[in-house]
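DM between two lab members

TW: hey, do you still have the Fumarylacetoacetate hydrolase family protein entry open?
JB: yeah, one sec
JB: this one, 203 aa:
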Amino acid sequence: MKIICIGRNYTNHIEELQNERPTEPVVFMKPDSAVLLKQHPFVLPEFSNDVHHEIELIVKISKVGKYIEPKFAHKYYDEISVGIDFTARDLQDKLKAKGLPWEKAKAFDGSAVIGEFLPKSEFTSLENLTFELTKNSQTVQKGNSNLMLWKIDELIAYVSQFFTLKIGDIIFTGTPEGVAAVQPDDVLEGFLEGKQLFRIQVK
Ligand code: ZN
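TW: and the structure you got?
JB:
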């Protein structure tokens, strides 16, 4: 299983990091070893002093596909959730400055939090989904899928030009604004349409 992540998919997040607005989706990957195991705390890595939370809508692929057309993309996933794309921002900034790949800052062990999946049929519209991250019970990030620059179906079509999508692959669809550092003992909870789908502790 692989994890395909989209960067810079929300205007307000692009602005908060003073990034350029992309003309095509920004794509990177995490290996399966990045998945934070269920019931495990997130252990801050030693190589960073500035690990940020990024809550994102996530999609689980349910059918093998390549060169998927946007109008058929909805047939390739049945379940959605929220997750965290943990990012070692200090390291990412260094890599970005040198034009180097981001993997060390984005794909390290435990950097992919995956919430409990829900059938997409539970939702009336995937283009108007609210999601939220709380830190120690305070809301720190709030997003809505209607603010995505590229919608889920467009992202699936786009990434499938490069990578064959397989059953169980997960797509992280980008984070809204409000990213910030986490500290030991923080408790992070992710919600989709008000439903809690993960709760993790930082160590
Ligand atoms: Zn992200």
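TW: got it. Residues 5, 7, 54, 56, 85, 172, 174-175 surround zinc ion (CB under 6 Å). The two ends are 26 Å apart (CA to CA).
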